[in-house]
Design goal:
Number of helices: 8
CATH topology: Rossmann fold
Radius of gyration: 15 Å
Structural class: alpha/beta
CATH class: Alpha Beta
Distance between the termini: 32 Å
Largest sheet: 6 strands, parallel
Helix content: 40-55%
Order of helices and strands: EHEHHEHEHEHEHH
Number of domains: 1
Length: about 190
């Protein structure tokens, strides 16, 4: 796999819903990493999209996620692609994307199925493990293993940030570095 290309990237944040997050193993850390990731993407001018699984039943995403997403796709399928995610990612006037960075909950259900759908659509998929969660740590680990076997790259927030930047000479290097240095929970 190549490096993640910021010029052809988008970030998808899957189902960080208020009613779900208290049940997620290390949910506060998962959410904080997702917020950090979204802030970095926005600092670099990248699209940030969210999804919500059955929002009538599970409620909306956490405010910290919702306010960072340019659009949130309500869905009933576990795979957001079945509810229109790929056309939303490719819709004009946006530049077509090739590299999708994705994180979310639950890692072994909606995140997994959405990432597999993105792979089936022919996109490069990069799953941010530390910004993804499940109720059980074992379920998260199994999801990451299966996604890796399916061809997704398993990455960290810092790996994504520095691949998007490519160089310390990038015009947004210092603001992104500052976001990476803020202790989690203090953003």
């Amino acid at each position: 796999m190549n490096l993640i290309d910021a010029r052809q990237s988008a970030l998808v944040l899957v189902d960080y819903q208020r009613r779900l997050m208290p049940a997620i193993h290390d949910g506060a850390q998962v959410l904080a990493q997702a917020v950090r990731l979204a802030d970095i993407a926005r600092e670099l001018g990248l699209r940030v999209l969210g999804t919500e699984q059955n929002p009538a039943g599970l409620g909306p995403n956490e405010d910290a996620i919702r306010e960072r997403c340019e659009k949130t796709l309500a869905k009933m399928h576990f795979d957001a692609c079945a509810d229109g995610l790929v056309p939303l990612l490719q819709a004009p006037p946006n530049t077509p994307v090739r590299d999708i960075v994705v994180a979310g909950c639950e890692a072994h259900v909606c995140l997994l199925q959405t990432a597999l759908g993105l792979l089936r659509a022919g996109l490069n998929v990069w799953v941010v493990a530390q910004a993804s969660g499940s109720r059980a740590a074992e379920s998260h680990a199994l999801a990451m293993q299966r996604l890796r076997q399916a061809g997704a790259g398993i990455v960290s927030v810092e790996m994504v940030a520095f691949e998007w930047l490519r160089s310390c000479e990038h015009a947004r290097f210092k603001p992104v570095l500052k976001l990476l240095k803020v202790p989690l929970g203090c953003a």
